[in-house]
Inverse folding.
């Protein structure tokens, strides 16, 4: 039985929580995500890098914030969500 890297990536509860938060709040910035998932900076950075590497999420730098999106969103939707999440 062949497993997919995407499935394996979400075996950890921490990664599932991060991925779910990004899906629920597309365009969320790092600090807000950190508050929602209650992880330390290094731990969150590690898991975000892994989820990006495996192709489950995308990160975009906008202004002073890095925003995270599920890869299921297309470019125009990501731009709209980024604008809507600005204060």
């Amino acid at each position: 039985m062949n497993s997919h890297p995407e499935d394996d990536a979400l075996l950890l509860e921490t990664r599932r929580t991060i991925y779910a938060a990004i899906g629920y709040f597309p365009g969320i910035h790092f600090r807000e995500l950190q508050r929602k998932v209650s992880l330390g900076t290094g731990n969150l950075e590690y898991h975000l890098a892994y989820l990006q590497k495996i192709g489950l999420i995308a990160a975009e730098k906008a202004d002073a914030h890095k925003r995270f999106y599920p890869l299921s969103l297309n470019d125009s939707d990501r731009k709209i969500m980024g604008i809507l999440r600005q204060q």
The radius of gyration is 13 Å. Residues 41-54 form the longest helix (14 residues). DSSP finds five helices and three strands in the chain. Residues 10 and 16 are 5 Å apart (CA to CA).
